[in-house]
Amino acid sequence: MLGAGKLEKALDCINVNLKILESDNMSLLIKAHIEILCLMGKFDEAFTTLEYYKNRPYVSQEVEELLRDMPKMIRMEEQKRNSLSTMSDDELEEKFKSEDSNTLLMAIDVVRGRDITKFLNKIQNVMVNFPKQSIRSLALLLLVQKQVNKELRFNHIGEIIDVNPSKIEPPFVGEPFNSIVRALDAAYRNPVLSENAISILSTHLIYIYPQPLVVDTQVIIEALYQISNEYLNSEMKESLEERCQEKGLDLEAVKTLISDIKKSLDNF
Fold first, then answer.
1. Which residue from 139, 136, 145 is spatially nearest to 170, judged by alpha carbons?
2. Which of 118, 123, 195, 197 is in the most buried spot, having the most CB atoms within 10 Å?
3. Torsion angles phi and psi, residue 97, rounded to 5
4. pTM here?
5. 167 CB burial (10 A radius; 0-12, 13-18, 19+)
6. Residue 114 has what DSSP assignment?
């Protein structure tokens, strides 16, 4: 599936931190968890997960109503995916006019198994005009994975740039990304914190794609440490200012990266 690596990381993050997240915002957690499973086509698992949440202690009327409505939503998403997979090319092309992110993600996924050249104009339109940067980036990633050798336009965070997908490196591959992951694990020595940091980093990398993250690794580690702890509502013994001073890091550089990452999370 297109963006499967990103979805897997998000799912792993939820599974690792499930108990912590349950105590924060149960309704938001349920929605995110079930929607990710549906996007991955794991509909049986979505129903199983829903049963898990139904058997949790009572939280609120809002959560109860959400749990009651979720089976219908899962079934609708399953039917939508099945209908897309059996559509003709012409019918599928029409789905690229949708303003719904989930419909577009599924359409892009189905197109991945077909002759991509038939859909280039539709995908190009998504890459330039769809409101959400994440969807524009995932459309570009599809063409990178298919190694489309053609100059195309891409709306990169409000700026139209020219790209040739066959000449762009995909994210999350190779030594640069792997070295950051190893550095995070070594610095935090906390699997929950590391998983959150990697998930947050992955979201940021997709948001800024194909622009690389050209920042010192230690600055990345400190910025992600701050954001991940905030996300988990964890208490930090020292302030960001104190940690940067101890480690000899440029405080403003760390703050700038924190701001950039939070912007990508807010707009993803």
1. 145
2. 197
3. -90, -5
4. 0.69
5. exposed
6. S
